[in-house]
Amino acid sequence: MAAIFAISSIAGLAQERQFNIIPEPVEISATGNATYQIGRNTPVFVSETGLQFSADYLADYMNRYLGIPLQIEKAKPSKRKTAPKARPAMFSGILLIDKKNSEVSGGYKLSITADKGVLIEGNDAAGVFYGIQTLIQLLPTRAGVLPILPSVQIVDYPRFAYRGMHLDVVRHFFPVDFIKKYIDYLALHKLNYFHWHLTDDQAWRVEMKCRPELTQQGSVREGEIFGLYPGKYEPLPYGGYYTHEDVREIVSYAAERQITVIPEIDIPGHCMAVLATYPQFSTTPDEPKKCALTWGIFNKFNNVLAPKPEVFDFLKDVFSELCDLFPGQYIHVGGDECAKRWWEESEDTQRFMQEHNLKDEKALQSYFIHFVQQVVNGKGKTLIGWDEILEGGISEDCVVMNWRRPASGVKALKTGHRTIFTCSAWSYFNLKESRTQIEIAPRGPLSLEKVYEFQIVPDSLKSEQEKLIWGAQGCLWTEYIPTTWKAEFAIFPRMSALSENVWSPLKKKDWNNFARKVETQVERYELWGARYSDAFFRMQDIERKR
Question: Under a CB-based contact definition with an 8 Å cutoff, are residues 277 and 214 in contact?
Fold first, then answer.
């Protein structure tokens, strides 16, 4: 597939030049017809040792994908607390500077000139790293093609502070190497939060030193489903989990790429894996329990925690350890799709509600969320939950993740909560991309254009409510995604649409321009060895033939 911006066309008129940068920068202007060529052993300079990883990252990309090694000039340790304010008078190559200013985190300025080369000045270390991601998108999409860069100046910064992507590793398990690759994909799209869904009805996927039986018994289910639900069941034991060492490795890997990992432990519903390990935590302790063998919301099988002293002890142990294991500020508590019929039918639960003046089951769900929040807050961290946590009332410092209709997000904003929009109809990449898609997936379609056009900021909000919109996120649930290649197929190119929606200023968003840029973006996917859906291009062909 031919790139719109071919390297051979650089000598054209500067003002007519088209760039294929996703997400679209705040400002981009060609500054002449001259060019700068990156060659073998082009030097990379850094203003301080804290930028060494970014320099190494760029060098690794150039060498791995284009076969062009760079020469990294190691920074000398300095006692200076601030970066140089003025551009160095003499340099030729690639220079990275952290300006350490008080402007928007992640913002940067990228300048390319024929005589001095590439200068990336970040507002902070994150800004330098994102400047490198933009530079990467000015590079060729094929090895062996010389990187001849146009004279250009780019000023850029993110629209939203939270730019996230989710991955469910419960329904299907992915190895550490793929988790790292997934994080690399986020970094290449300037996304900065990785929401890691670690527990659900089908399994418990993270080691707990305080409760080792959770992974000994709760990380394996007895069988596997093939095909769309209800599908064909086969008794093939399926399991896997992440050790503390795995978690630390992944968290460190993400942090180097300016990404924060948010772990999710789903309670008080979606707990069949917990109950398979501790049947006494259920409202029906005498019934046999096991990890779920299929998907969906389970009203037939008890998957809800009972309000018992030993359950709250369990929650304190698990969330305390989770806070210690994950250094980020945020812990996700789940809180969604709680099948309250099990509480309604339990005499012990109804007695507990009366003793604690809980007027209904929504208030009981809120009681669970408040309990975990106290544990998390006690560790100096902040709780995030799906939008159902609003139902019984929550503290204002809880963050709401809106997965249902946008109206639920508006409710969260109007009650003073910071809100992340990840509405399923626009942001769930496990949905079919087109009606003709042959790969197994639930409902849909969720087209590339629909993802791109999702209105993150709802209409009719007051200015103080708009300020509470933290950002948006894409989600990948894996009931029908058993392999890494299918995960890539599901997220690409829709992750690129998400990226531009959460980063670029609203006035710079243009569907037709984005659709043009996607043709070059898929060449990058091919360069990375990533699989992607061609549904968008098939639809383009159909439109052209009409």
Answer: yes
